[in-house]
């Protein structure tokens, strides 16, 4: 989303995460902008019985739950390394200074936030009103729609 050198010049640092290591937990206060340099991160939470619900997978170049930086509310989800990954981490205050000094970055940030909100609306509607079969079809079509190659059988869905 944002060029690595720009983030580094504003005080970002690299942080490596092992598989299943938390970047942040549900209830934590958002204090960093995270951008994935290598690897994948799953966004999840758990129900009362401890069953995991994966809400999404964020890939290289993405930023997990960037929308949380724009509120004073705690994270509603966990961000967990899905595989070994390397992440750039920029303090929240520095991130907002970067946006103020480079308003052209909003052209990258706002579509990303809008896509995230669109996904959340689809998931809320799908999970609330549709049959299990339609829920799966909707999720699979959404995931494939974000993949660059739209030919048949070209996208392996990263869930079981």
Summary of the model, kept short:
With 160 residues, the chain is α+β, with helices and mostly antiparallel strands. The protein contains four helices and seven strands.
What are the main properties of this structure?
4 helices; alpha+beta; 160 residues; single chain; 7 strands; Jelly Rolls
What spatial form do the alpha-carbon principal axes imply?
Answer: globular
Give the DSSP E fraction (strand runs of 2 or more residues): 15-25%
Going by helix content, strand content and strand pairing, the class is alpha+beta
Task: Assign the CATH superfamily.
Answer: Jelly Rolls
Instruction: Estimate nothing, just give the exact number of structural domains.
Output: 1
Strand line-up of the largest beta sheet: 2-6-4-5
> Radius of gyration over alpha carbons?
16 Å
Number of helices: 4
Cα end-to-end separation: 28 Å
Averaging pLDDT over every residue, what do you get? 85
What is the name of the CATH architecture?
Answer: Sandwich
Note the main sheet. 4 strands, antiparallel
Q: Please give the number of β-strands.
A: 7
Order of helices and strands: HEEEEEEEHHH
Low-confidence stretches: none
**CATH hierarchy class name:** Mainly Beta
What share of the residues lie within helices? 25-40%
How is the CATH topology named? Jelly Rolls
Protein name: Crp/Fnr family transcriptional regulator
InterPro entries: cNMP-bd_dom, cNMP-bd_dom_sf, Env_Response_Regulators, RmlC-like_jellyroll
Organism: Chryseobacterium kimseyorum
